[in-house]
Structures are given as C-alpha cells and as structure tokens.
C-alpha cells in the first residue's frame, strides 16, 4: 500500500540555531521514520504556532486529496485542523502533543512564584488546554510524547481510542554526535537556557543550591553550568564554572559522569535525560520528575529529594560506579516505529526496517 503524508510544522524549526531544541529533535525523528519506511511525504513550513492567513493559503494551495495522512506538530491550531477535516474528510489527521499543556503551564506558574507573570501563565494554561481539546476534537489521533501524559492527561479528557503513545527518541544524527565519548572525568553538568523559561530557571537555582551545600566535599568534582545566569539575585558557588551559551552542548556532556536536572516541574519528555544517558552519563533528578519519564530511562537515573541537604551528594557519590548496560534509545525508537506502523498501516514485511539504530 502506498501512503502519502503531509507533514506540517513551524518554519523556524529548520533554523540551525534551533538544532538542539527538544521539539526539533522530535520532529526530525518523524522525518527519519518516513524516510526509513520509504513513505512518500511532503512538508509545509508555517510561520508560527498560531497560523496566519498566509499559512492557510500555503496549506490549501496543495492538492490535498493526494495525501492520506496529515501529521501536525503541536496542538495550537484547531482552526487549521478543522479546515483540513472539511477538505480531507477521508484522510487521517494526527496531531503531536509535546506537553500536557494544562499541567505544563501550571508548572510554569509554580516555578515562577507569586507574581503577575505567574498569573499570566495560569491564564495561558487554561487557554492552551482549550486548544489541546479542540485539536483533539478535529483530529483522528493525538500522538503523545510520554506514557504518563497519555494515561494521566489525555485519556482523562478525550476518548482513549484517539490517544496513541509515540515516544520521543534521538534521531541517528544526534546519536552519532554523542557516541564518540571522551574519557570520563568527575564532571557534573547542568544545562540552562537563553530563553525566559521558569522551569529551567528553577532547575538552575536548585543546581546552584545543591552544589553550595556540598561545602568542601567532592573536591575532585567539577561543576559546569551553561545558559544565561539566573535573573534573580542568587549567590553562585565559585565551584560552578559558568560557560554561558555554547553552540554544541554535547561537547560539555561527553566527558561528564553526571548530568543534573533539578526541578520537580515540567511535562513532556525531557530530551536532555536521554541525551545524557546516550553520552554514558548518570542523570540526577527529583523523584517527582523521574516518575513522569519513560521506564526505559529509569535504570540510569538517580532520584533525589530537593528538600534534603545531603541527597544530591549521595547521588553524586554513586556516579563513580558503572552505568548499567543497554540502549534505551533503541528501545524507544523501536516502540515509536511500531506505534507509527500501526497507525499508518505498514505491512509486517516492511516493519523489519528500523529495528537497529
């Protein structure tokens, strides 16, 4: 059976500066799937998450009846999905969810703390939740990025028959960049951001606090942080080497023994965790965040209690041991391929493709 797919996503995701953005890596995994399965696909790049009249014209100038399936990356344009449904009544419409928006933006508000901006995030949470539900209404399937969000978010509000778990995995180009691991040293890395993201800012503050509590312990460890400095005045331990914005974050990750992601907040699949594991790093993170991550990643993670003064140090001590063997990316890739195969109707003869990373 020959299947034609129309793939729609934001234009700026093709920008080289966005190469390490989680959404970009996720979209490229879909492209990799289409290519490896020999699926004919066409892409349309639109201006932003809230589509303009020009975007609509660009989409609908296509001969839409050529396409059997549409994959829209992001749950922010129910109007586009509604019009696609009218124009393509016999086609299958799929929308990718990168975060459980109601919970995710609520976490933004909690991480921000009491402020006018936090109230704006709460308003955004409700607004984005309405967009989530509307996109689900006009699509055949919602492709969730994590099993937790499928079970505790989407299936609570829409028909479970529409909810399909298609896990994130790292495309081969990223794995190849991570593979040449440097000799491991006692380095713990925290990745910040240049964006105004309260979740990352919360993780940064917690990393600074955790390193500060170590006192003179772990003298043979280096602590590296990237991204912008916290906007709030925070005393930064001299033990932390701030590297600012780096164009290739994997360079900092490859020699490290550990990567710290120290915030309870945030939905979706934390792509940094998988990247760290593929670079043969332990991942130190709060128990609440670990509970929302795929089971394939848990053997490589060291959960801590952010309220404890010594929890971070105990986890760090374990990072000198051997990382468990295995390839969680391959397992997630196979699961993602199998899910898409089922949705698209790929024959068993073609399903052997893509079983090896």
Please tell me about this protein's structure:
This protein is α/β, with parallel strands linked by helices and 357 residues long. 40% of the residues lie in helices and 15% in strands. The chain is built from 13 helices and twelve strands. The chain has helices at 22-36, 53-60, 78-87, 101-112, 116-138, 147-157, 172-178, 198-212, 250-253, 271-278, 287-290, 311-318, 328-344, and strands spanning 4-10, 40-46, 69-73, 92-97, 141-144, 163-165, 187-190, 222-225, 240-242, 258-260, 282-286, 301-304. The strands form two sheets. It has a six-stranded parallel sheet, with helices on both faces. Strands 9-8-7-10-11-12 form a six-stranded parallel sheet, sandwiched between helices. Helix 8 links the parallel strand 7 and strand 8. Helix 3 (78-87) packs parallel to helix 5 (116-138), helix 4 (101-112) runs antiparallel to helix 5 (116-138) and helix 4 packs across helix 8. The longest helix is centred in the middle third of the chain and has 23 residues, at 116-138. The chain is globular and about 65 Å long. The two termini are 25 Å apart.
């Amino acid at each position: 059976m020959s299947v034609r797919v129309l793939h729609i996503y934001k234009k700026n995701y093709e920008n080289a500066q966005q190469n390490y953005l989680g959404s970009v890596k996720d979209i490229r995994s879909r492209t990799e799937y289409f290519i490896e399965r020999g699926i004919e696909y066409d892409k349309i790049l639109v201006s932003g998450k809230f589509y303009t009249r020009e975007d609509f014209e660009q989409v609908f100038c296509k001969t839409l009846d050529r396409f059997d399936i549409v994959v829209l990356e992001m749950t922010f344009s129910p109007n586009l999905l509604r019009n696609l449904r009218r124009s393509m009544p016999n086609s299958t419409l799929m929308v990718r969810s990168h975060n459980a928006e109601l919970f995710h933006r609520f976490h933004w508000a909690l991480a921000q703390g009491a402020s006018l901006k936090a109230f704006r995030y709460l308003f955004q949470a409700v607004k984005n939740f309405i967009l989530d539900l509307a996109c689900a209404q006009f699509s055949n399937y919602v492709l969730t990025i994590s099993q937790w969000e499928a079970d505790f978010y989407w299936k609570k509000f829409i028909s479970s028959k529409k909810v399909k778990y298609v896990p994130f995995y790292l495309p081969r180009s990223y794995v190849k960049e991570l593979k040449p691991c440097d000799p491991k040293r006692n380095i713990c890395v925290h990745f910040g951001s240049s964006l105004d993201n309260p979740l990352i800012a919360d993780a940064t503050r917690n990393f600074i606090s955790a390193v500060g509590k170590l006192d003179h312990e772990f003298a043979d460890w280096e602590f590296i942080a990237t991204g912008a400095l916290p906007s709030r005045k925070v005393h930064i331990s001299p033990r932390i080497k701030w590297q600012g914005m780096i164009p290739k974050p994997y360079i900092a990750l490859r020699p490290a023994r550990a990567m710290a992601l120290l915030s309870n907040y945030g939905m979706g699949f934390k792509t940094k965790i998988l990247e760290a594991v593929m670079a043969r790093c332990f991942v130190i993170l709060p128990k609440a965040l670990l509970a929302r991550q795929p089971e394939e990643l848990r053997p490589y993670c060291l959960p801590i209690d952010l309220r404890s003064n010594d929890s971070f140090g105990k986890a760090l001590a374990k990072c000198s041991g051997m990382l468990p063997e295995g390839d969680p990316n391959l397992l997630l890739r196979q699961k993602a391929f199998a899910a898409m195969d089922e949705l698209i109707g790929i024959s068993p003869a073609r399903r052997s493709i893509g079983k090896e990373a």
